[in-house]
Amino acid sequence: RVTLWEDSVLVKEPETRERTVWHQDLGYFNVDGEQLCTTWVPLDPVTAATGAMRFVRASHTWDRSFRPNFFVTDDQIPGTEGETVPDVDALARRGDVELLCFELGPGDLTVHHARTLHAAGANTSSTTRRRALSVRYCGDDARYRLRPGMPTKPHHGELRDGDPLGGPEAPTVWPA
Questions:
Q1: Is the pTM higher than 0.85?
Q2: Angstrom distance (rounded) from CA 45 to CA 157
Q3: Which residue in 99, 143, 149, 155 could disulfide with 80, CB within 3.0 to 4.6 Å?
Q4: Above 80 in pLDDT, residue 11?
C-alpha cells in the first residue's frame, strides 16, 4: 500500500543566487519508517546552471538522521533533533562520498529515499525558471511521528505518534 504524505511546488527564479544546502527530507516529515520517498518532477529544463539536484550516493543506508535546516543556510531549525549535516562537499573532495547529479527535462522524474542527503545549486540562468513538483509517498511501515521543532500540516492534525498512515490525512494512492 502506498499513501500520499504531502506535496509541494518548488521554484527557483532566474538569477537566484541561493543554493539549497545539503539536507535529508526525513527531518521535515512527521513520519517515521523505511518506506518513505520523495518524487521530484521538473516542469522546466534542469541543468547545473538552473540548479540541478545533487545526491550523495547510498546516503540513505547510513542509518543516520540529520537535523533539518532552513534550506538556503546550514543553520539548523531550533528545537529539532538529529545530527548536524556533515560538510558533504569536503567529503566529496576527499573521495569519501560519491555525488550524483542529473540533468532533467520537463516531466522527467527522480525518486529518492527520505534519508538521502541532497542539495541543489543556484539558478544562474538569466532566463530559465526552475519549477518542480515534489510529492512524498509512504509505504506500509510508515507511522506518524511528531518531530520536536517541526510543525504539523493542518490536514495532519488528527494523527498521533505511532498511528499508521491512512484516511483523509494520508490517503491511499495505491492499494495493497
A1: yes
A2: 36
A3: 149
A4: yes
